[in-house]
Amino acid sequence: DAGVTQSPTHLIKTRGQHVTLRCSPISGHKSVSWYQQVLGQGPQFIFQYYEKEERGRGNFPDRFSARQFPNYSSELNVNALLLGDSALYLCASSLGPDSTDTQYFGPGTRLTVL
Amino acid sequence: DAKTTQPPSMDCAEGRAANLPCNHSTISGNEYVYWYRQIHSQGPQYIIHGLKNNETNEMASLIITEDRKSSTLILPHATLRDTAVYYCIVSKTGANNLFFGTGTRLTVIP
User: Fold this and answer.
1) Best CA proximity match to A25, nearest among A10, A6, A8
2) What is the distance between the alpha carbons of residues A110 and B30, in angstroms, rounded to a whole number?
3) Among A50, A51, A34, which residue's Cα sits nearest to residue A89?
4) Of A2, A11, A44, B26, which alpha carbon lies 20 to 30 A from A111's?
5) Is A102's CB within 8 Å of B101's CB?
6) For the segment A43-99, what is each residue's pLDDT rounded down to a tens digit?
7) How far is B51 from chain A (nearest CA, A)?
8) Taken in order A31, A93, A27, A102, is the CA torsion positive or negative?
């Protein structure tokens, strides 16, 4: 079975631009979460979506937004990019948001903001 | 969710058991202990989780103390491919937002 997939794998943008990152969950998983991982730190929670509804939001500015589609895939959008947004963006999927089941992570998208 | 404390780094000889400790003294009764690892520049990989009892799977064993205030992840026969950052996470559900902290960087030495 295919795991969580993310696209693109790498991306270079300049300050002020916007970016869209994409994620496809494991088949049958209805919950998608997004994490940001800055170099040298652990992943930090950004959003969780379940059945197209936002179920949780971390401490990130409104420049960050996301959505989930009927097929449970998801997009993360970041507007007005700052140098500090350079990071590995990870997507994780799970069966549902309240399950003791685990999250399964994709390989991530490496975003570099110049 | 309760926070955890892990040593920043550990070394282990190849073929020996790697024992990674984690303190979670403020854990509540309905919180699980999850372990993930992250090999360089890859997404985190789930290893194991438990509530009260010790758990074992094909990757590792998880030993949780009786008072649940600490736990140990055991990799029985460490290989070079086990070199990674290991995260201990306490959460009511593994499917919701996880607080990763900074983890323990395990280096397996030939």
Assistant:
1) A6
2) 35
3) A34
4) A2
5) no
6) 999 999 998 999 889 999 999 999 999 999 999 999 999 999 999 999 999 987 776
7) 10
8) negative
